[in-house]
Specification:
- InterPro entries: Zn_peptidase_2.
- The chain crosses the membrane at residues 6-22, 122-140, 146-168, 200-222.
- Pfam families: Zn_peptidase_2 (PF04298).
- It comes from Paenibacillus turicensis.
- With 226 residues, this protein is mainly alpha-helical.
- It has helices spanning 2-32, 42-52, 82-86, 90-108, 111-139, 143-180, 186-225; strands spanning 60-63, 70-72, 77-81.
- A hairpin with a 4-residue loop joins strand 2 and strand 3.
- The radius of gyration is 20 Å and the shape is elongated.
């Protein structure tokens, strides 16, 4: 009974995840049509923010796709999707400066970012093998294998939970520095906030879905043992 009931919050969380993805795309597209007050491209804003924080040696590269922007801590490079790299919109500077926020975290050894980097190799392995262990465990009713699969899956859930403060902190840094360094006006900042808040919601929804799925698996495991 409890296991069946667990499907309800998971379905709701999955719906939230789909809505969050729809919202971030809609908000990004909306503010892609709004020019920022200083006429900066995403590249301009990112370069100025990097230089203002002493990160002169961190390059900025354009990449294909939409919302594929990221900071690569291994190569120490900020990669911006082509629309963000070239456009002079509120969305462009919001996303670009958020990614620079991660570069600043890296420079300052922000504890949660350091923890996420150290977890990544383990999580990469665990998240790849967990589904196979769970499937085989359920097929052959082998509780030991199910338990091991749950343990590996919990590593991926922990990684997502650690990601939340990393993303929130990068957004907060971006908004604060953009205003203090004259990269955005107060009018721009309202749009920047909406873009970054919509993006943050996708991480929250993904973490919630994974957390509820972990709880469901634990309940199934306990039920099988009983």
């Amino acid at each position: 009974m409890y296991i069946n009931l667990m499907y309800i919050p998971i379905i709701l969380a999955f719906g939230l995840s789909l809505w969050a993805q729809f919202r971030v795309k809609g908000t990004f597209n909306k503010y892609s049509e709004v020019p920022n007050q200083y006429g900066l491209t995403g590249y301009d804003a990112a370069r100025q923010m990097l230089d203002a924080n002493g990160l002169y040696d961190v390059p900025i590269e354009p990449i294909q796709g939409s919302l594929t922007d990221h900071y690569d801590p291994i190569a120490r490079v900020v990669r911006l999707s082509e629309p963000v790299y070239h456009e002079r919109s509120v969305s462009a500077i919001a996303v670009a400066c958020h990614e620079v926020g991660h570069a600043i975290q890296h420079k300052e050894a922000y504890p949660m970012l350091v923890a996420r980097h150290r977890m990544f190799p383990v999580v990469n392995f665990a998240s790849g093998i967990a589904p196979f262990m769970l499937i085989l465990g359920f097929i052959f009713n082998f509780t030991g294998l199910i338990g091991l699969g749950i343990l590996f899956f919990s590593c991926a859930v922990l990684f997502q939970l650690v990601t939340l403060p990393v993303e929130f902190d990068a957004s907060n840094r971006a908004r604060r520095i953009m205003l203090s360094n004259g990269l955005a006006t107060n009018q721009d900042e309202r749009g920047v906030g909406k873009v970054l808040n919509a993006a943050a919601l996708t991480y929250v929804a993904a973490a919630l879905v994974s957390l509820l799925e972990l709880l469901r698996l634990i309940l199934i495991f306990v039920n099988n043992r009983d």
